[in-house]
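Q: I have 155 residues here and want to know how they pack in 3D. Can you give me a structure?
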Amino acid sequence: MVAAFRQGLKEAGYLESKNVTIEYRWAEGHYDRLPALAADLIGRKVTIIAATSTPAALAAKAATATVPIVFTTGDDPIKLGLVASLNRPGGNVTGVSSLLVELGSKQLGLLRELAPGITAIAVLTNPNFPGTERQLRDVEAAARVLGLQLLVLKV
């Protein structure tokens, strides 16, 4: 993802160490670290924050109402409270959503079509990731409708 980010900056005319400085921060799956990391960036007077996950976007939004934040998320940014609407996000936050959380039940249906004989399926989840519970509820409902036994593995 970092390589794609750098490539996009390069295509826009920004070269790291030439005309842009990037301050990287990684929580390494420890989402409780994100508020401090966001506060550190704000303290360094960064020009913009690129939040590449839902937890990072939420922490950045909680940390500042003035520094622009560009996010990526797999969930609904309106339901998360990141933006007021998709057309007019408002405030200092904008971004892209792949709505992956909404696709779980669709993926289960497609899997059933590809392997019509299946009776059970396992789902790997990250219990610490925002949106997991809602996505799991959608998948569980789809599994009931399809008559599938669902084994949920929290990893």
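Q: Anything worth noting?
A: The chain has six helices and five strands. The mean pLDDT is 89.
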